[in-house]
Structure formats: C-alpha cells, structure tokens
Amino acid sequence: MALPKLNSASYQTTIPSTGQKVTFRPYLVKEEKVLMIALESNDQKQIVRATEEMISSCILDDIDVNSLATFDIESLFLDLRSKSVGESIGLKVKCDQCETQNDVTVNFDEISVDVPDENNVIMLTDSVGVEMRYPSFDDVSNIDPDKEQSIESAFDIIMKCIVSVFDDDGVYTAKNEGPKQMKEFIESLNTQQFQNISAFFENMPALKSVISFKCSNCSAENETELRGLQSFFT
C-alpha cells in the first residue's frame, strides 16, 4: 500500500525588479537538505547552485531564475523561508557601545526591498551616457570566489551590466559591440566617470531592515540596519 501524498499550500509573491506576480510553494525537507549540505561546504558555487535549484523547484510559474537580479533572488528566498520555516528569525546583533551580542527577533514582514524608480541611465559627459541593468543571478554565480573582490571581477560585472552606450549620433548596444570594444570603452573612462558607474552597484537594492534594541548588558539603545540576505542568516 502506497504512503499518502502530502499536499503543499501555495502562495503568491511579487518579483521586485519586474513587478511580476508568481506563485510558489514552501520548500521540502529534501530541498532544504541540499541547501544545508551546500552551506556546510562553504563552497560559494555549491551554495549558489543549491539556492538556484531550490527557487526553481518551488516557483510554480515559468520564469528564468538565472536572469533575475540578485535582490530578486534574495526576496524570493526570504518568501520561501517565511512560508517553509516561520515568519521570523532570531539573530545575534552586536551592541554599538559594549559589543555584547544581543538576541534580536526580526519579523520577515519588516524586511523589504526598495527598488528606486529610475531609468538606470548614467550620464558620463553632457552628451555620452550608458544604460545599465542590475547584475543577474547568473552574472554573480559565474564569479570566481577567489577573485570576488578583485578589480578584474569588478570590470567583468560592469561590462556585463552595460546594456548600451549612447551619444548624440546614436545608441550602441553592448551585445552588438562585443566584449573587446566594451572593455576598451570602460578602460577609457576617467576616475570620476568610473566612480559614477560603480555607485550604481553600491546603491543596488537589497533586503533591508532597520532594527532597534536595548542592549542586555549596558542598556544602550541601538539602531542597526541589516542589509543583504547574508545579514539575516548568519
């Protein structure tokens, strides 16, 4: 006699960068196990691959997970965890004054992703500008962990995220120009122009929550901003 099948509830959420509504189910023990093994390995590529597989399995609509922005992945994973494990998480947060680790509970409904209402255009001169996109999950997963903080990786991400370059004469699509031309273009920027493009990534949306707590040791009032998925699961 076959064992009974357990039916999972389904929920709906919104992909932050596109506004698209998608339906998902909570993740299962077998999927959580794969992720836990990946986390124990401390292998960044294995963790990324396990996260991708989990989200792909749990989203019931037809979407390309690899093409989503990194903060979309963070938001979707948070939604999955909320409905799979619980709608809050206990964290250890250091006091700003005495550095004592405090137990703080964060509700997932207090965590948000704020996507600015902008057209992702950066002007480099009065007549020359670039149209940017946010890094996709695929872009980030292909970075060598050993070179994550390197100048080479920064250049590579910038090249991948330039959609087009434009001036008074026309628009030049990055895909049509090719990697060599785009690399030469980036290397021709002056320091200020490069910093303007870099700021686009520094201000990229991410999971964010401001938490307030009173230190259990020195009674100091603290206000701390948690930013990015790693802040909520370490």
Features:
single chain, 234 residues, alpha+beta, rbstp2171, 3 domains, four-stranded antiparallel beta sheet, three-stranded antiparallel beta sheet, 24% strand
Structure characterization notes:
This protein is α+β, with helices and mostly antiparallel strands. It folds into three domains: 7-86, rbstp2171 (2-Layer Sandwich), CATH 3.30.2220; 88-111 and 208-234, no CATH class; 121-202, no CATH class. The chain is built from nine helices and eleven strands. Strands 6-7-8-9 form a four-stranded antiparallel β-sheet. Strands 5-10-11 form a three-stranded antiparallel β-sheet. A hairpin with a 6-residue loop joins strand 3 (88-94) and strand 4 (101-107). Helix 1 (29-41) runs antiparallel to helix 2 (44-58) and helix 2 (44-58) packs across helix 3. The longest helix has 15 residues, at 44-58. It is globular and about 65 Å long. The relative contact order is 0.14.
Fold topology:
Blueprint: E1 11-14, E2 21-24, H1 29-41, H2 44-58, H3 70-84, E3 88-94, E4 101-107, E5 112-113, E6 121-123, E7 129-132, H4 137-141, H5 151-161, E8 162-167, E9 170-173, H6 174-177, H7 179-187, H8 191-202, E10 207-214, E11 221-227, H9 229-232
- Helices, by number, come to 9
Largest sheet: 4 strands, antiparallel
- The whole-angstrom Rg is 21 Å
Count the domains: 3
Mean pLDDT reading: 87
Put the structure in a nutshell.
This protein is an alpha+beta fold and 234 residues long. It contains nine helices and eleven strands. The strands form four sheets. It has a four-stranded antiparallel beta sheet. A three-stranded antiparallel beta sheet has the order 5-10-11. The protein has a two-stranded antiparallel ribbon with strand order 1-2.
